[in-house]
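Appendix B. One record, verbatim.
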Amino acid sequence: MLQEGIFYQQGSTPGKHWGLLFIRVKSDANAEEIYKALNPLWSILQKLKTGAINDLPTITLPTPPSGLQVTIGYGKNIFARTGIKKKLPGEITQANFRPPLATGGGKVLLASGLSYAETITKNPATEDIALQFISDSELLTYRCYMESYKFIAGEKDNELFPFELVKFYSGFQREDRRSWIDFHDGISNLKSGDERLDAIRIKENNTEGEQWTIGGTFLAFMRIEVNIDTWIKLDRITQELLVGRDKLSGCPLENIVNNRPVTVSKCPFAGTASIIDQASNGEYPNKDFFETPKTSDALVLTSHVQRANHHREPISHRDSLRIFRQGYEFFEVSDNNPKVKIGLNFVSFQDTPERLIRILTQDTWLGGVNFGGSDNNQTIDNSILKIWGAGIYILPPANDMNKIPGYELFEG
């Protein structure tokens, strides 16, 4: 079964606050040393769910109603450590992000329009271990990082201790269900329940040595900054054509008439102004338009929402290229230019990272475009998005033995 922190079930809702911590394992550490350090760290994080921390042994701290969920993933580097019992899954070998150029920047994938920020010379998201924290409490999410830091920093004089912290990213959900470019975001995600599970869960397979991954999933992560200075200079029509939705209502575009985008018929439903408006009974009258419909309009087909989903079935098959996205926004203020850094912590789950890699690289999908628009006209689009970190991790299934997911890597 899938680990906690992956909200595919009907009726389940992610907490409002999120964090992702990357841990590097020293190159000379073996599997036994890694496991010996990982077990107490995992225990510290589990205790936080009940409000217990080591430095306050007689105190129970308040915890939010939705609690804390902790998810662990393993990057390709850990499989090269001495004594690791499992081979690197072939799916990661065949689909992974490129490193930045030594001088900074460079394409995330050769055939993709996404590039690293110009100042990035090392990708901070390709480490041995990734820990995801989700909670309704911002404090609890940050406490996960703080307690991890205290545990690891407390061992700084121990030459045999195998861990070092590399990077921590945080994010939050928005109540308006929009992104920083002011358009509705995430509403065309896979339906909860079986539809999501079909795209997420690693299926039964005959690949020798990879049976331990069945029931797990792959996490793909990108820290995506939006160049808001470029975006706000675009007029509304240009923005809508790049996105593929009406900016105010969120309704998907169907065609272009007299150089103006036209939304699909009967959206929004009478009595509603936005695609996410609810009726008095809690239903969404416009829910049939959450998923962008097929269109034959060539210009609309180049929009972001149409490029990202070609409506292939069945969803369970990798060729559908459907993924389950569970992202969180970020917001950073600086005294230097640019004064604000905003964007999305893109987190997706899929039974194979091939789904995402192909979305990002194939022609007619996102391919060589940065966000949306025509392949032949990327003057505006090329500078909208840039990447600050990108990585892929295997998330082994949970177990009923009270062991860390992925214990098979360390136990013979």
